[in-house]
Amino acid sequence: MRRAGRRGRQAQEGSPMENGVGQEPGAPEPPAAEGIPAPRPSRARPRLVFHTQLAHGSPTGRIEGFTNVKELYAKIAEVFSISPTEILFCTLNTHKVDMQKLLGGQIGLEDFIFAHVRGETKEVEVTKTEDALGLTITDNGAGYAFIKRIKEGSIINRIQTVCVGDSIEAINDHTIVGCRHYEVARMLRELPQAQPFTLRLVQPKK
To answer: Per the similarity annotation, which family is this (predicted)?
Structure first.
């Protein structure tokens, strides 16, 4: 397995992650054919196991054998008997909605994965009084776009019910589930000024 310091597992959709599946330690080697030296035993690849919890509180689970974000969510969902679509995003080593700790391209061998799941749904009406709303949007690689940053003094910053970590589920009743973050950003950018619009948001469970 290729190593890069303590970090060595890709976590982006479509990018392979080391799943730790290999020959089990102690497995017998096949007998060598007569007159042919036995092959040198290959190094067994360790099975990588990660610990996980639901961010709002749960027992600790163990997951392994995933190769991308969707498989990771499926493994977490299986441990906690929930649907993978309940998971909005994951943070590493903190249960808080901390965008600096957001699960990104890599998982370290000692990282603890916290899954933030769907909480309450809320609708807010926004009037676009200037070009920029003041939002930075990212997505979880599995169909949900959510708010990563809110610019201080911006239109959105003045709406107290909109928070970092909220998933954007619909714009004017048009569902955006399955859209990438840049598609959602474009839709918001193209909304006309001075005309109110509605955002349906899902906040992480507290």
So the answer is: Belongs to the GIPC family.
Which one-letter DSSP state was computed for residue 163? Answer: -
What does the longest C-alpha to C-alpha distance in the chain come to?
Answer: 85
- How far is 171 from 108, CA to CA, in rounded Å? 36
Query: DSSP character for 168?
Result: E
CA dist list (Å): 109 to 72, 77, 201:
15, 20, 33
Q: 137 has which bridge partners?
A: 147
* pTM, to two decimals: 0.75
**Extended beta strands in the chain, E state:** 7-10, 49-54, 61-64, 87-92, 106-108, 112-127, 135-139, 145-150, 167-171, 174-175, 196-204
Quick one: residue 134, left, alpha or beta (phi over 0 = left, psi -120 to 50 = alpha)?
A: left
